[in-house]
Fold this protein.
Amino acid sequence: MTNFPESETALPEMFDPATQEGSKFDLLSIGIYKAQITDATVSQPQSGDGWGVNLTWQITEGAYEGRYVWQHITFQHSSVQATTIGRRQFKDLCVATGVDEQVTDVAVFKYIPCQIRVGIEQDKTGLYDDKNRVSRIWHVDAQVKQPRQPAQPVKSSASATTTTSAATATAPPAAAAQPTATQQGTGNAASGGNGSVPPWRQARPSPSEELDDENPY
């Protein structure tokens, strides 16, 4: 039996938030995925300028199997550049799906296994959440390289300084330089020929020797 609301603001049945789950939306990681088109439509933008093809892709393998991503291809537009880019993407779609005849209805692309590259598009205004976007399409058997993973962050200069300081603190002290033979000889001459004996510990000459040294004859 259907319960009819008593007013325009009343729900047909009670809703208990404690027993319900909220929406969960996690972006797909950047990479190459096996996928197929489950929905394809043709529509005009809100501006009324041109026509576009809207594709719904479903991931068919891997950890994200069953997830959906969306793609918009510009088919006609007043901008020559936009039309050129869109026609190239449409040609890629034909090659990936094996459609080589003239196309008049986009339904021919549905449920054909392909490979797609999924990226992440960021909203420059910051008003909307990031979203996945399909940037390339290939045949399911094409040899495609996986995109490079983001580089690891570089350690801060503070960490590098700490590491350098620790290495300096633990380094053994340098050995004292040994005097060369020339330096040893010079030192002996300066100390009166007694090697490394200090002058105040050297034997002094007798008074007669001092007189003999002062007497020229």
Notes: Confidence is low (pLDDT under 50) at residues 155-167, 184-194, 207-217. The first strand starts at residue 31 and ends at 43.
